[in-house]
Known about the structure:
Distance between the termini: 33 Å
CATH class of the largest domain: Alpha Beta
CATH topology of the largest domain: TIM Barrel
Helix content: 25-40%
Order of helices and strands: HEHEHHEHEHHEEHEHHEH
Radius of gyration: 19 Å
Structural class: alpha/beta
CATH superfamily of the largest domain: Protein of unknown function UPF0759
Amino acid sequence: MWAHKSWQGRLLAHPLPAHERLRHYAGWCNAVEGNTTFYATPPRETVASWAQQTDPDFRFVIKLPKHVTHERRLTDVDEPLRVFLDAIEPLGPRADALWIQLPGSFAPSDVPTLARFLRRLPESHRYAVEVRHPAFFDDPRSARLLEGVLSAAAAEWIPFDTTAFFRSPPTSDAERDAWIKKPRVPRRSDALTDRPIVRYLGRDDTALTVEGWQHWVDVVAGWLREGRSPTVFVHTPDNADAPVLARRFHDEVRARVPGVEPLPEPIPAGPLTLF
């Protein structure tokens, strides 16, 4: 997501041609969730334009198509997977991890299917799995089963932390929509690899969002001191200020770990003036 409507003209210049939008987003943040690939595999030429707009160290966490993860549930997917991997090849090192988001119905009994799928994947990519079935969070045996399969494949477990969001009832249309759609599971803070990935959902109230992420400031600072290289995505129900909030989170972590590199300077959204 790098062309949110509410950012245009406020955080990002507007209008912008399609081949410039990601470049302007990359002035705010150095990573992005590739969520659109869940709905359709993009043309290779489109992915090549993403690479051209970003530096080699920019991080894409690219979601596998729902045809692979939700419709076929990781079974008999060699051809759609081949097409997908070919399409994203132009990203090169920017493809930080391929994101395997599994449906809420994907249960501990399905973990052997995941294990077979991971064994068939090329070693040229890193992989990260997001699960939503409550048993993985409530049942220690199920959690250990999944951790074992992921560790064997050097894959990460992506937590989607919605605990701050569900702490109090919704107060806006965007929050009410998220209240229905977002998973409500306990928070998980363990890293399996040297490059953990966190997805955090706050509230449309900035103060509540910042209050809710203090746990992650502590965890991420600890990971950095251990030599890990985490990626954190900050969301709110309306995402109106998500890039600003992401930079604020980054600043809070840098205050704890001063050696962390600063984020780039955003490209001005409007023309520069003297007054």
